Amino acid sequence: MIVVTGATGKLGSLVVDRLLERVPAETVGVSVRDPAKAASLAARGVRVRAGDFTDPASLKEAFEGADRVLVISAAIRGAGAAAANIAAIDAARGAGAGRIVYTSHQAASRDSLFLPMHTHAATEAHLLAQDTPFTSLRNGFYASTVDQHLGSVLPEDGPVSWTAHADLADAAVAALTEDVLDGITPPLTAPVTRTFAELAAEQGIEHVTLPDDEWLAAAVERGTPAPLAEFTLGMFRAARRGEFAVTDPTLEKVIGRTPQVR
Ligand SMILES: NC(=O)c1ccc[n+]([C@@H]2O[C@H](COP(=O)([O-])OP(=O)(O)OC[C@H]3O[C@@H](n4cnc5c(N)ncnc54)[C@H](OP(=O)(O)O)[C@@H]3O)[C@@H](O)[C@H]2O)c1
Questions:
Q1: How far apart are the first and last CA of the chain?
Q2: pLDDT by residue (tens digit) across 29-86?
Q3: What are 210's strand-pairing partners?
Q4: Is any ligand 1 atom within 6 A of the Cβ of residue 58?
Q5: 189 lines ligand 1 (CB under 6 A)
Q6: How far apart are CA 162 and CA 199, in angstroms?
Q7: What is the C-alpha to C-alpha distance for residues 76 and 168, in angstroms, rounded to an integer?
Q8: Which positions ≥6 away from 17 have C-beta within 8 Å?
Q9: In terms of C-beta density within 10 A (0-12 exposed, 13-18 middle, 19 or more buried), how is residue 27 classed?
């Protein structure tokens, strides 16, 4: 059985949809925090079990009988994030999975200016220290992030290879059903990079930036909690340093088509 976590999320739901085009529903299980949200998958014959990365005991049942587990990094900010992902990896090992597939990030690094990259680096270090075969998908930066920011006053940024969820979902399915990707993958990215200035110009939107300290103060003034504003600023500072400026042909090779360009 292939077990997919985060199946009620944006990436996980696309993965399950595409997986069901390739393998019978009775060979697919999902581990979700709220099984009621996955009722439509249960109706399609998928095994739905409750699993929360912060409650490792729940994962024992959720991952039961798994040959392969897709651990979708949980949407958790801060110190608990790596521990949660690591708990899911250990639960997959405990269930006897022969391969763990993890959704990392193209810029995973302990030195990154963007905090989630530290979480991915710590999770990858844990995967490397185990003897279970794994695939750490170094996913490109989600293109959906652009829509959250385009048109707002922003900090200075840098080029990013914005990558579509749909393309990354197909790569995850390939990693789960074929022997195409092993270990830490190359960056799985769209073939071009774009700055917010370029994206705004393409769409005829005015692009306005502020120095970091002024942008932070304005965000807090608007009601954004300071830690969240600092978190977001980290993304722009990392982009400025070129952390997301990489493109790589691996995603195109794995999915057999040119990845979407944002
Ligand atoms: N590559 C990138 O640029 C990028 C950008 C942002 C985030 N990410 C990472 O990619 C992941 C998937 O992206 P997405 O777009 O699918 O995000 P999403 O739609 O927000 O989904 C996040 C998933 O994380 C699950 N989750 C949260 N806390 C959990 C916990 N304690 N235990 C188990 N699952 C938990 C959520 O479950 P519920 O449905 O129960 O809430 C949800 O399924 C994110 O969680 C994040 O780690 C990557």
A1: 35
A2: 999 999 999 999 999 999 999 999 999 999 999 999 999 999 999 999 988 999 999 9
A3: 155
A4: no
A5: no
A6: 11
A7: 20
A8: 169
A9: middle
